[in-house]
Each structure stands twice: as C-alpha cells, then as structure tokens.
Amino acid sequence: MATAKQIQYRIGQTKKKLAKLNKDLNVTKGKMKTLEGQLKKAKSAEKPKGKKAVPKKKSPAKKK
Fold it and tell me: What is d(CA 16, CA 24) in angstroms, rounded to the nearest whole number?
C-alpha cells in the first residue's frame, strides 16, 4: 500500500508531465498552422495556368 507522501509525489510528477505536454502541444499547434499556411501558398503557386483559346479550324467545303 502506498503512503500519502508517495501518492502526493506521484501526483506532483504527473502534474509536471502534464504541464510539459500541454506546452509541447501548443508549440506543435503553432508549427502546424505555419506549415498549413506554407502548403496553401505552395498549392496556389503550382496551379496550372489556363490554356490559351485556340480558334477552331473551319472544315473544308464539302464537294457536291
């Protein structure tokens, strides 16, 4: 059976771990937003330009 001090110690360690993970999570979210912005810019830069309109050729006159 664990003593009260041991349990308090474990709770303290868990709180520290949680605080560190939350900090890492916020940093990671920021990096994700940055990368998503870069991806959006890259996609818009890669869009193919529209093809130029080529006039249709007239069909040759039919022989009677």
Answer: 12
Taking the whole predicted model, whether its pTM rises above 0.70 is answered as: no
Amino acid 22 reads N
The dihedral sign for the CA sequence 37, 38, 43, 49: positive
Tokens representing 16 are: 């520290």
Cα–Cα distance, 2 to 36 (Å, whole number): 48
**What's the confidence (pLDDT) of residue 54?**
73
DSSP conformational letter for 3: -
Residues in the chain: 64
Alpha-helical regions (H) of 1-64 = 4-46
Tell me which amino acid residue 16 is. K
